[in-house]
Specification:
By secondary structure, the chain is an alpha+beta fold. It has 28 helices and 16 strands. The strands form five sheets. Strands 15-14-13-12-16 form a five-stranded antiparallel beta sheet. A hairpin with a 5-residue loop joins β9 and β10. α3 runs parallel beside α5, α18 packs across α21 and α25 packs antiparallel against α26. It starts with a helix and ends in a 17-residue tail after the last strand.
Length: 575
């Protein structure tokens, strides 16, 4: 095709009707580089990033350099991975070395480290950098990162005698490019870990696979290497999806877990330990629904499932929360299995000793649902899914309208019949100081105060409602940060308070339009024949509900794209 004809956008698209893929292939094969660049401009709105990169890769290294140094263009058009793999890694090694030497600050502006480019270079280019490593004017750590990132076959052909000792240790390191989706540095905790200090190459370690001695060494390493990904595999999640926490999150979470375990009474039975651990998780963690809160969908999927990240941020999905409790139970020698029902995860406690209603000791498997216990523990109520049978778990899947959400349905669990009756459950939680000596849970005081307010303001629905909200806010100061648990408790309050009758009562979550992360905000919408429609939202800083008009509320907040099914609830406030 005539090159000049190709620049006629109307002719190409409307008359010939070429697809964007056909157009890309034609442009790639043009002999004149200037026409290729001209076509990139003409068809900028037609070609998406992947197709543009196919064309750019056919340009000369000097032309690529001009594109790379057009900061606004490449940041707008391409992801970091594309800039590294398709642009920087495709340069002639001399030009890349020039960037390292003269424009290191520009790479920093792009948030790109030199070692990230090494992963994608061919053998010839990697050998070039070995021979010219001192010409790059990079820091010692950056040079070590480059050497560590080279392919194993390249390292094997290097004459180590020609390098100083600090380079030799880097050349002996191994990059894993197969086990997970992205490259990472394999760490040998049985060698001198100081060799890894200061390196920013991603390192991935599964702490559950470490010995006690290796764990101590690993924690030292975490304090020196910011790019460690602490992996927490979940049986219900495919291995190719990395569920990880940062080194800082790991250290913070382990300190909390260590403190929890160290404070367990050594005389406690396994069941008492489970009660304390389940309660502590409920006080620390809130349920996070599967919301797409920003453009990083993968991050939104990972964060509430990453074991140690959950402790650090205070939010988790049912999979993450159940896996967290499984991990802590394992640390104290209690076996459990994480299982998945219908879009929900919970635990089976293995070989647990319970006292039956007739006072006999029975040993077997039983079900514990950490997520559905969160609300009870957070607000000091009786947990309804603590050591229950499969039959009881399935009963709780059915809501008040008779709808079965199948959360705990799982073939093969029908033989789990072991459960803790209410009297023995109360005695258990009394024995560890969570309930009082009579087995009454702390929420009873709140319930009694709520009933008293209901009687005092029985003839003033609006005053009654506001007083109930005020009592709730004072009694549970962190209510605004545990939105899903608060929804459950508030729903129960309003449905069980005798003199509070509404035409409609909506309790849900929204997000502030100005919040880029779209963090959930608890809100109430009340329709009453006596005082009309009222909107209230939970203010996290003030720790109270703020009243807003319909106009104010809709201007400030936005609903999430899809409705959320809130797994886990307290059907009645168990005290």
């Amino acid at each position: 095709m005539n090159q000049e004809r190709l620049t006629d956008k109307h002719y190409i698209l409307d008359i010939l009707g070429l697809s964007r893929f056909e157009l890309t292939e034609i442009i790639k094969k043009l002999p004149d580089e200037e026409y290729k660049k001209k076509c990139l401009e003409i068809y900028d709105d037609i070609l998406y990033d992947t197709l543009k990169l196919r064309i750019i890769r056919t340009l000369s290294s000097s032309s690529k350099l001009k594109i790379i140094f057009d900061y606004n263009y490449i940041k707008k058009e391409f992801t970091k991975y594309a800039i590294v793999d398709d642009l920087l890694a495709s340069l002639d090694p001399e030009d890349l070395c020039y960037i390292f030497s003269q424009h290191r600050e520009y790479l920093e502006k792009l948030n790109i480290y030199p070692y990230e480019i090494m992963f994608h270079l061919n053998t010839e280019s990697q050998n070039y950098f070995i021979a010219n490593i001192e010409k790059t004017k990079l820091s010692l750590n950056e040079k070590r990162e480059i050497l560590a990132s080279l392919d194993d076959e390249v390292k094997q052909n290097v004459n180590l005698e020609a390098f100083p000792e600090e380079y030799k240790t880097a050349l002996k390191m191994h990059i894993n490019k197969k086990k997970y989706a992205h490259e990472f540095l394999e760490v040998d905790l049985d060698k001198n870990i100081e060799d890894y200090y200061g390196l920013r190459i991603p390192m991935k370690i599964i702490p559950e696979e470490l010995t006690e001695e290796q764990t101590i060494i690993f924690k030292r390493l975490c304090r020196s290497c910011p790019n460690i990904k602490v992996i927490s595999p979940i049986p219900t999640v495919p291995l190719e999806i990395e569920i990880y926490s940062t080194s800082d999150e790991y250290i913070e979470a382990e300190q909390w877990i260590d403190s929890l375990i160290d404070n367990l009474n050594p005389q406690y039975s396994n069941l008492q330990k489970i009660a304390v651990i389940d309660n502590a998780i409920g006080k620390k963690v809130s349920y996070s629904p599967n919301l797409k809160k920003n453009d990083e969908e993968e991050e939104d999927y990972i964060n509430p499932r990453a074991l140690w990240k959950i402790i650090s941020c205070g939010y988790g999905t049912c999979e993450g929360i159940a896996n967290l409790e499984r991990y802590i139970l394992k640390r104290v020698g209690i076996a459990s299995e994480l299982v998945s029902g219908h879009a929900h995860a919970f635990l089976i406690l293995k070989d647990i000793s319970l006292i039956s209603e007739d006072g006999k000791e029975v040993i077997g498997d039983t079900i514990l649902d950490p997520t559905w216990n969160l609300s009870a523990h957070r607000f000091g109520a009786k947990p309804n899914t603590f050591c229950i049978s499969y039959k009881e778990a399935r009963k709780q899947d059915i809501n008040e309208n008779g709808e079965d959400h199948y959360c705990h349905r799982k073939s093969g669990l029908e033989n789990i019949t072991l459960e803790l009756d209410e009297n023995n459950l109360r005695n258990l939680f009394a024995s560890v100081g969570i309930a009082d000596n009579d087995g009454i849970f702390p929420i009873k005081q709140f319930i009694e105060k709520s009933k008293e307010l209901d009687k005092i303001y029985a003839d003033d629905t609006e005053k009654n409602f506001k007083k109930q909200l005020e009592l709730f806010s004072i009694s549970f100061p962190d209510f605004a940060t545990c939105q899903i648990s608060s929804i459950k408790i508030l729903s129960d309050i309003f449905s069980n308070t005798e003199n509070l009758k509404f035409d409609q009562c909506i309790i849900n979550i929204v997000y502030n339009r100005e919040d880029k992360n779209k963090e959930p905000v608890l809100y109430l919408c009340i329709d009453s024949s006596t005082f009309g429609r009222k909107f209230y939202y939970a203010d996290k800083s003030k720790k109270q509900f703020i009243e807003a008009s319909l106009e104010e509320f809709t201007k400030q907040f936005e609903c999430y794209e899809s409705d959320i099914f809130y797994s886990g609830r307290i059907k009645t406030l168990g005290n």
